[in-house]
Amino acid sequence: MIRLYHVAQARSFRVLWFLNEAGLPHEVRQMSFFDKSLRAPEFLALSPAGRIPAVEIDGQVMFESGAILEYLAETRAPVLGRAPGHADRAAWLEWLHFGETIGQHLANLTQQHIVLREDWMRSPTVMRLEVKRLEKCLIAVAEARRGDYILGDFSAADIALGYGFLIGQRFVRPDHPAVAAYWQALSARPAFQAALAADGPAQIYTQDFYEAPADG
Ligand SMILES: N[C@@H](CCC(=O)N[C@@H](CS)C(=O)NCC(=O)O)C(=O)O
């Protein structure tokens, strides 16, 4: 039995998308950022810093979305992984974990625009810088693709990266054909659509777009 502890729009979306791609039966436990449940001892026993996602996979408890994708690919869905010895093993690991390089920019922008509630707490300089750094990552990924996806055939690396494209468009929309083409390929996948339908009501991003303050 696979149980996913999930918050709508959070990095647990990666695991939700993976489970749908792999057709793995699962239960989604919808959690909240607002009711202190992520700081409850029962949840901290699963994820010691109270972070989302956490999963239980036939009794194996895990946190860290990239590690969960790797483990699920290795144990349940090899087609979404690139096993040791595969020619694309190193590239698969690089891109899978590059998802969290993008994730850092998303987290910084989310903190600046949403978590910090008063204007005086925010830094327009950080907001603009993070937009530029996020944009550079999205373009780098999109240009590195071999065909539709990052390694040619779809894999868990596209899921880890794809979350960055899903949330990244709340902060930056590069006018770049490769970015548009990658997003088109990712968002057309039935499993992506199924995961979106199961995501739950918005908990983090309530605006379509969060504009960085103009320079000067
Ligand atoms: N690198 C971790 C990041 C986990 C993380 O920070 N998740 C956020 C949601 S996207 C969270 O739980 N935030 C709540 C908090 O910081 O207390 C992963 O990919 O699983």
UniProtKB/TrEMBL annotation:
InterPro entries: Glutathione-S-Trfase_C_sf, Glutathione_S-Trfase, Glutathione_S-Trfase_N, Thioredoxin-like_sf. CDD domains: GST_N_GTT1_like. It comes from the Bacteria. One of its GO terms (molecular function) is transferase activity. Residues 1-80 form the GST N-terminal domain. The keyword Transferase applies. Keywords: Transferase. PANTHER family: GLUTATHIONE S-TRANSFERASE GSTA, GLUTATHIONE S-TRANSFERASE-RELATED. This is Glutathione S-transferase. It comes from Aliigemmobacter aestuarii. The lineage of its organism: Bacteria, Pseudomonadati, Pseudomonadota, Alphaproteobacteria, Rhodobacterales.
